[in-house]
Amino acid sequence: MSRDYGAEIDALRNQIESLQKAIGSNAEAHKAGKNKKVGHVQKMTDMHPNAHVSACLDEVENVTGENGQTGAITYVGVFSSSGRQSTWAKYCVNTDDLLKLISDNVAEKVLSCLGNSDRLNILLALLKKPMSVAELITECHLNSTGQAYHHMKPLLAADLITEDSKGIYVVQPYKVQGIIMLLAGISDMYDESYAKSNWNKEE
Fold first, then answer.
1. Per residue in 111-130, pLDDT tens?
2. Quick one: DSSP state of residue 160?
3. CA-based Rg of the chain, rounded to a whole angstrom?
4. Neighbours of 49 (CB within 10 A)
5. How far apart are CA 149 and CA 129, in angstroms?
6. Total-model pTM
7. Which of 49, 67, 118, 173 has the highest local Cβ count within 10 Å?
8. In the chain, how many domains are there?
9. Are 162 and 152 in contact (CB under 8 A)?
């Protein structure tokens, strides 16, 4: 039985045309999604390969645009070390409230309390495990008990660390997430590969 090459070529041509139409419609849909806005918020598509994360971002964009606020963030996390665990989940935190922490001088107080390498090293050591002052001196390469207490005093005053049992210090369990999230924010300042913006575009 002989092959009908003309019919085969026509069939292939029809398949190619169907594929081109499908690709074109997908591209248009993708473009339309990229241009979609909710209120003043430009929707950003294809931000993350995980569907749950993408759905969460979509919801945060919707809340921000619908409420007319500067932004919103949702975050979850867990930190577990030496048998101690802190788990947290916050939903659609209004960034307008976060920005007030600057004008209210709260951010300055917290950052000035932490803005010292010895204090940060003490926090790092205590995040790993509870320690005595003697252990902190060794772990953090401090010169004396006096120097250790000098740097522990503002951390104690800010309720970032506490004496868990006689002579043993720990990070306050409800402050762990704040410290980890602060470090996450610092990391974000160095790595912009995951972010999209239209920061320099005019409306």
1. 999 989 999 999 999 999 99
2. S
3. 27
4. 7
5. 18
6. 0.76
7. 118
8. 2
9. no
